[in-house]
Inverse folding.
């Protein structure tokens, strides 16, 4: 479900006219829908009602304070991967005791910060990390709550950069070695074993891999509960979304390139049906770490067509003012994002193939290739759909391009939840060698 629709020929986010937003705040502009985020949280929560569970939203997907605040109000927990993300969660009103800390490379400072804040658990990825956590906890005279990330060796499909549950990946400890590591951890004086965790990948659109991974890890979780009194099993994130969206305009979805049935979809109910039966008998608290599912369809990136260009070979280019620095998914993972004109085209508008590209000096700076699009004019606005997850959070200042602004809409209300960077922001904290010398 998402809340971006045409209304009287103009694209809206909930009740807000996106062209008006762009006129006031400029482009590139990220726009997020409150309704979509809360709806996704509530639907997942409801589908798991039969389980003692805690949704720990994966902050990396979208870490804007306003998004975190929304989810904190829904009583979501958070899955963090850095001190910075924990700082954001706390700043937004989230509770540290509902935060799990993932990642293969936690530093001593990050471990200390998280311990002082009192997080729910460190999801530990190696024995070396376990030892460092034990040492740091000892120095602080505390016991660190810990879950071991096990690697179920399940192929979740999808792009190789976002598949994590195979044994050749850097993540977690092999299932066959888990007992050994728990035995070692149980002897560490400053470690408290609280759970077990897994995560098999991202943008998974079938129930099978989740079911297979849960089936593999559940017996181990049961043993760990018996032997070490663990309290939770985190099944990770990964629930995929539909990127070929269906904007509702009352007309045929003419922009769809693939037949509707080709759109991947896994409902929260199907997801729950696949995992709940194997989880329920464990009597453990079940944690989930969804990121993309919660925010992916809740955001669009608005951009203005700067130029139209046709190559010598007749290839058409639509050059927009957003670049790979704003949204890197197409360049990095061949990620698909719908490109939709903000002014609704006539249903019989002719379509022609074009590449939609950004201004960055790289051939990889594209949003769509050979995409069938209606006629677009210079100065016209387009929306890159389903850009709410791993959009702004992966943005950079490459080519010294200021970071885009972010707006959160709710009904007919729109608020800037992050200001556009200025040119001065680009050089904040920097100095020439001459400046540095003068400062001494
Ligand atoms: N838990 C762990 C341990 C993770 O590593 C991740 C994502 C999640 C949860 C959340 O996964 P999700 O529910 O969002 O699939 N930048 C890539 C996706 C990278 C995912 C990294 N880990 C993209 O844009 O497709």
């Amino acid at each position: 479900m998402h809340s971006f629709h045409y209304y009287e020929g103009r694209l809206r986010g909930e009740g807000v006219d996106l062209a008006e937003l762009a006129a006031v705040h400029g482009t590139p502009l990220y726009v997020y829908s409150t309704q979509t985020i809360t709806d996704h949280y509530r639907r997942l929560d409801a589908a798991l009602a039969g389980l003692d569970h805690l949704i720990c939203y994966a902050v990396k997907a979208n870490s804007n304070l306003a998004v975190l605040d929304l989810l904190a109000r829904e009583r979501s927990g958070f899955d963090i991967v850095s001190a910075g993300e924990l700082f954001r969660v706390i700043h937004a009103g989230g509770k540290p005791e509902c935060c799990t800390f993932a990642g293969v490379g936690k530093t001593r400072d990050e471990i200390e910060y998280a311990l002082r804040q009192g997080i729910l658990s460190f999801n530990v990825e190696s024995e070396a990390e376990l030892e460092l956590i034990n040492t740091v906890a000892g120095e602080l005279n505390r016991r660190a709550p810990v879950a071991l990330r096990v690697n179920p060796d399940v192929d979740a499909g999808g792009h190789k950069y976002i598949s994590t549950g195979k044994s050749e990946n850097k993540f977690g400890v092999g299932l066959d070695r888990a007992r050994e590591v728990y035995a070692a951890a149980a002897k560490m004086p400053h470690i408290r074993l609280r759970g077990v965790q897994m995560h098999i990948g991202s943008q998974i659109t079938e129930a099978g891999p989740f079911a297979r991974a849960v089936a593999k890890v559940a017996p181990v979780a049961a043993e760990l509960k018996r032997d070490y009194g663990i309290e939770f099993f985190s099944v990770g994130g990964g629930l995929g979304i539909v990127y070929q969206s269906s904007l509702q305009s009352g007309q045929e979805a003419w922009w769809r390139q693939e037949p509707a049935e080709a759109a991947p979809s896994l409902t929260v109910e199907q997801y729950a049906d696949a995992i709940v039966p194997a989880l329920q008998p464990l009597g453990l608290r079940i944690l989930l770490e969804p990121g993309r599912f919660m925010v992916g369809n809740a955001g669009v990136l608005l951009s203005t067509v700067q130029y139209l260009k046709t190559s010598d070979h007749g290839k058409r280019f639509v050059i927009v003012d957003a670049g790979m620095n704003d949204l890197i998914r197409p360049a990095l993972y061949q990620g698909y994002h719908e490109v939709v004109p903000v002014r609704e085209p006539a249903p019989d508008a002719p379509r022609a193939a074009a590449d939609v590209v950004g201004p960055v000096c790289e051939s990889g700076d594209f949003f769509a290739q050979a995409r069938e699009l209606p006629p677009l004019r210079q100065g016209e606005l387009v929306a890159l759909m389903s850009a709410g997850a791993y959009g702004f959070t992966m943005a950079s200042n490459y080519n010294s391009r200021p970071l885009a602004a972010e707006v959160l809409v709710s009904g007919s209300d729109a608020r800037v939840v992050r200001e556009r960077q200025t040119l001065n922001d680009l050089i904040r904290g920097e100095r020439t060698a001459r400046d540095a010398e003068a400062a001494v």
